[in-house]
Queue: 4 jobs
Job 1
Amino acid sequence: MEDLKNATLNDVKSYYEHFYGPNNATLVLAGDFNTDSVKLLLTKYFGEIKSHGEVAARSAMIPSLEKTVKLYHEDNFANVPEINLVWPVPQSYQKDAYALDFLAKILADGKKLPCIKYW
């Protein structure tokens, strides 16, 4: 809130110009539609909106912990105890992330594991 209170009108305009352009947006279309007619409608309704320049790719935010962090919270409305164990892991789509996804499936699915081939 402190940053919002201290923002000037020029700060807000600059932020808008940088982040609120069609080149930094995602449009999702779902359902049964004709691709050619949708392209015409997109051009009709959004075609005049100009690009706000190139959007720089974001760099990975690699987590690091210098020591173990332990937190405790007692929920007065909980019916059963819950323990969460969390570790920093590689970001999605990195080489090691696939092995961790596979391990999570093995650990989470219990006895319902599909046939796994080891080679």
Job 2
Amino acid sequence: MTRIVGVHGVGNHRPSATAAQAGEQLSAIWRRALSRGYAPPVDLTVAYYADHLNPRGRQGAADELPPEARELLVAWLEQLDLPPALAQGNATRPVRQALAWLAERRGLAPRLVELFVTTFFREVARYLHADDIRKASRDTVAATIRAHRPSVVLAHSLGSIVTYETLWHNEDLQLDLLVTLGSPLALPHAVFPRLDPAPVSGRGSRPPNVKRWVNIADPGDLVAIPPGGVPLRFTEVAADHTCAIHAFDFHLVANYLACPPLAAELSAHS
């Protein structure tokens, strides 16, 4: 039976549960989602680190983001094909208006786009800008991998950033297969240049303790940009699969876990 560790993305804080309970709840969700596309039984557990991000109180909207999160959001907007009226001036750009335009262009509900984007950049900013949160998150992922001893790690969204850094900083963690799902690792300005270890001459690389690295992204995933960016920005990525997982839930981990390229990679690995 294939042993797998999952590393979740944003929006997974469960304040009413203990870390152990939250991890098991997420593990059950991931196992069910994976079984939709990959039939063989697996031993899968999710590393739960969302409690370290510690979102407290009212989350707020795009106009109420802390400066470091707004900085990342604006850097992300610069990668999109915004109309000229929305693409001028970092300090004065009307973020909410830009998100409304994006929602209309994609046929999505503006409120949901704003919620997704602000949640994503708020948690990414917490991770990238707070050394104590960064270390605690990486330590949790490393401890889960050590305890579960997987041959495969599936890392989604922000979890791909945490996992990438964790593997570089813990050489004893040996993996046969790393699969990044909906990963923002290659996101210019907002993520890529802020990684630890930092890119060298504009390139990152596969962690040396990983035998095979595969990336999977929905072409419409708002944060897995630029398309094809992971193999372009990182050396020794064995495969980069494009898979349309859902017209609207383009970043949902359950849809990534059920996608055919992941099932094919796991079948080839087992």
Job 3
Amino acid sequence: MEEKYKQEFASCIKVVMFGPESTGKTTLSRQLARYYNSVWVPEYAREYLQDKWNNERKTCEPKDLLPIAKGQIKLENKLAKKTNTVLICDTDLLETKVYSEAYYLGTCDPILEKYALENTYNLYFLTYIDTPWEADDLRDKPEQREAMFNAFENALIEHSRPYVILKGNKKERLQKAVKHIDKLLK
């Protein structure tokens, strides 16, 4: 049952965009996939929660987190088979864990927590909050961007994840990310 949250073996390098909402993760994911002629794993929660909003006018609830985690890993495992170089992940389960703790009184489902900590990636790109806030149906806390950035960085430090902070405009972020991915590919 719990295996549906586990990463399958992949022969590629996996990097994750990580950080608060509206900090350029999806834009950079697409740019990097194009640059490396590879694939990127979209954020499953966006589609899932947009559908929920469109159909029920409800936002994320704790009961949504395991289906989101399951969908994210299923998508990642499927797309990892399509590359042998680098897989660009728009998010991971550790990000879902950070949001769970921030939004639901410091709690996280034990299954989500287990796989958020067991699943591994070669490098995290922590996106800084120096991008303009873009409102949409799902984004809801522009005033808490700094606190959320700190929560994301603290999670990376606490769980000993390798990471690089990306700041600046789209071009600067792309150049810095490419420099670090190229080192992994050597």
Job 4
Amino acid sequence: MLGYAIGALLYDSLGHWLITLYGLTDKVETFRASYAEWGAVIILVKGLTPIPYKLVTITSGFAGYNIWLFVLCSIVARGGRFFVVAVLLNRYGDVIRAELEKRLGLWVVSGLQLLVLGFYVAYRLV
């Protein structure tokens, strides 16, 4: 919630100044429209990755994304990520802990690729 507030509140002062400085004023509304359409997907996917989630929270606040939908997606994504890790650690113990610590990024990317491939195959079959 703090990251969301930072993104929402600092846009009017620091954010607006930076956007004007870089000449991106005309792209802000396009970004916000895209985030309004794809924000839930972005939040859910990024919430499952080891990428710092603070980036998602600040961006969601900046984009003016619906706060209740943001909270719901955050609970699902972050809860899902920690649930999967907890199940793996409970079932496989120290063996999986060492593997996750060494190659977490690889496993996350592989899982996302498999998920996207599954959606692509399902789309082609329907």
